[in-house]
Specification:
The complex is a heterodimer of chains A (283) and B (311). Helix content of chain A is 83%, strand content 0%. Chain A contains eleven helices and no strands. Chain A starts with a helix and ends with a helix. With 311 residues, chain B is α/β, with parallel strands linked by helices. Chain B is built from nine helices and 15 strands. In chain B, strand 10 (204-209) and strand 11 (212-218) form a beta hairpin. The two termini of chain B are 33 Å apart. The model of chain B has no long low-confidence stretch (mean pLDDT 89). Classes of the chains: A mainly alpha (283), B alpha/beta (311). Chain A binds chain B through residues 1, 5, 8, 12, 15-16, 19, 97-99, 101-109, 280, 282-283, and chain B through 50, 53, 55-57, 73-77, 79, 81-83, 85-89, 91, 100-101, 103-106, 145, 148.
């Protein structure tokens, strides 16, 4: 029966999220983003071809790898933002509007309701991430005939990243109103983001204290660390060697496999906390 | 805890930030009974219903619903609930809403396929069943909410302001629906501000104030509680206004309660045979313009027990 209830709520949440205006707005902006990305990539590719640099494999790979990673980084940021907005409005919004009352008054346990929401939202957000990342990769492949290495590993880590944000957003939404919850999760995301860059800069400068700040920030919110690991997986070793000076491109401080496991446990812990908090929440 | 009771609570309490919303509430509703829960704004009526369903966790106390502890998810399969502010997924149609709630209420698909069109017809939404709820008027939404509460053929109905937002036709529809359900043996607890609705649909009323049961009465027995007498009178020239208090005190043996009311007073619980004596007494003390006796209504009971604060 639990499985059935989770399924019903997952389908409802999927349909609900897919209809949200924020998703429609994000889809329109994503199409615009893909158009801008494709046009930019096309002009760069033309320039490289005209100047004959495209024939130099190392230069071409470095440029195309960097551009595709930039495209995926923008995808990651867009999907992270969308995940926060959709998740907090889905749970905290429905608590505030009292939409959950008639649902929770049915023979359904709170954890079933929450897990159903998680599944439904994860499905719709994964679809968005898949379409946008797929769009970046397809546009890149068509224009440059170059594909990132280990795409599946990279996308899997981006997916885990999104699930971490989703779980944290739901946990926060069990206690805070939609606006407050959104600000809270985005604040944590910004901490992870800043920490990730500090760690990268610190590693470049050989400053261990700055690296430590980055590591602690990643423990608070492991999203940026997971992205950096995804970027590391999809890097080109050849381009890596050629880009000694690029802080963005080169993974100077690579999050370990333990950080991936930590990310998984983090998402799981966030959901356990969400269930416990939601179970005690007055509706 | 008695198995014959549909609802039983013992000293149920709910406090928000140490401020009690419901205090020591002990309720007993027999199976098959239709009971109205009345009280002024903020009396804790909605909180009581939510605690019964497990939507709000009691701070202390205990209770049962259909013989099972409060908040038991399986028991909720046998309960229909209409929240005070029925909120919904606006993109669903009424038919989809009922299908969703039938699924959640574990109603077998074949039964739901038969019951949903019947319910839509009963709440006069058959013609609009496939329109999104966002296009509905407030009254239509309330009727869709009521159908939602009934989709599981519940043994116990918890209706929080079921007629709010309804026009007279809609109110009549709900009244008839409740009457039919009562005839079929469904138990119902109804919160409503509309005392006329409660009077015409309930067997019994429970009045609560600040989360405490302050009065219970069978509606059929209201008339045996004596008359309500409205008296219009004024003091004679030269009389001190303090004299009114003396009049109230001297009238009290003939009635249960004296309430000053504008240019006179209202006496509650007056026996028919005492009316001439009251009239004679008043005529000797003040100038009497009108004495009107009538059988008590629920509103009289409400005003007598709760007072005249807004409700």
């Amino acid at each position: 029966m639990a499985q059935r209830n989770v399924g019903i709520i997952a389908r409802l949440s999927f349909r609900e999220a897919a209809r949200r205006r924020v998703l429609l707005g994000a889809s329109v902006l994503s199409a615009l983003f893909l158009a801008v990305y494709g046009a930019g990539l096309w002009f760069i590719h033309e320039d490289l071809s005209r100047s004959g640099q495209a024939a130099n494999v190392a230069v071409a790979v470095a440029a195309y790898n960097l551009l595709q990673q930039l495209g995926l980084y923008a995808t990651y940021l867009l999907s992270a933002l969308l995940t926060v907005l959709v998740a907090v409005s889905s749970l905290a919004g429905e608590i505030e509007s009292e939409t959950l009352q008639s649902i929770a008054a049915r023979p359904i346990r709170r954890w079933e309701l929450l897990c159903g929401k998680w599944l439904g939202l994860a499905a719709v957000l994964s679809l968005y991430l898949g379409i946008l990342a797929g769009g970046v990769l397809i546009v890149s492949r068509v224009i440059t005939r170059y594909s990132l290495p280990h795409i599946a590993r990279g996308l899997a880590l981006m997916e885990l990243d999104m699930l971490v944000i989703l779980s944290v957003s739901l946990a926060v939404s069990t206690r805070l109103p939609a606006l407050g919850g959104g600000v809270c999760v985005l604040g944590a995301f910004a901490t992870g983001f800043l920490g990730g860059w500090m760690e990268q800069i610190g590693a470049g400068m050989g400053n261990s204290r700055t690296v430590a700040i980055g590591v602690v920030s990643s423990l608070i919110m492991p999203t940026e660390a997971l992205w950096r690991r995804a970027a590391y997986e999809m890097r080109s070793v050849l381009a890596d060697t050629l880009s000694q000076d690029s802080l963005f491109y080169r993974a100077l401080s690579v999050p370990s496999t333990t950080m991936i496991v930590y990310g998984l446990l983090y998402a799981l812990a966030a959901m356990v906390i969400a269930i416990r908090l939601f179970d005690r929440r007055d509706l | 805890m008695s198995p014959d009771l549909a609802i039983e609570t013992i000293k149920l309490c709910k406090a928000y930030n140490h401020r009690p919303a419901v205090a020591d509430l002990s309720l007993r509703v027999a199976r098959g009974e239709v009971v109205g829960l009345l009280g002024p704004n903020g009396a804790g009526k909605s909180t009581v219903v939510k605690m019964l369903l497990g939507l709000v966790l009691p701070t202390s106390g205990e209770g049962t619903l259909l013989g099972h502890r409060l908040g038991d998810p399986e028991t909720r399969r046998r309960i229909g609930f209409l929240p005070e502010r029925f909120a919904f997924q606006p993109w669903l149609t009424a038919r989809e809403l009922l299908t969703l709630h039938a699924d959640l209420g574990q109603v077998p698909r074949a039964v739901a396929r038969r019951r949903i069109p019947e319910l839509l017809a009963q709440v006069a939404l058959a013609a609009d069943a496939d329109r999104p709820l966002r296009t509905y008027s407030k009254g239509m939404l309330q009727r869709a909410g009521l159908a939602q509460a009934l989709v599981g053929a519940p043994e116990l109905l918890l209706l929080d302001e079921p007629t709010s937002g309804l026009d007279p036709g809609g109110r009549l529809l709900v009244r008839n629906l409740i009457a039919r359900l009562r005839a079929e043996g469904t138990t119902a607890l109804i919160n409503s501000h509309l005392l006329g609705e409660i009077e015409s649909t309930c067997d019994r009323v429970i009045l609560i104030r600040e989360g405490i049961v302050v009065h219970e009465a069978k509606l059929g027995a209201l008339t045996s509680e004596g008359c309500v007498v409205r008296i219009r009178a004024s003091l004679r020239p030269g009389s001190s206004p303090e004299m009114w208090q003396g009049v109230y005190d001297e009238l009290s043996p003939w009635c249960e309660q004296v309430q000053p009311d504008g240019d006179g007073m209202v006496l509650h619980g007056v026996r028919d045979e005492d009316l001439p004596a009251i009239h004679r007494y008043l005529s000797g003390r003040v100038d009497v313009y009108e004495v009107a006796a009538r059988k008590p209504s629920l509103e009289d009971l409400f005003v007598r027990v709760i007072g005249t604060e807004a409700h």
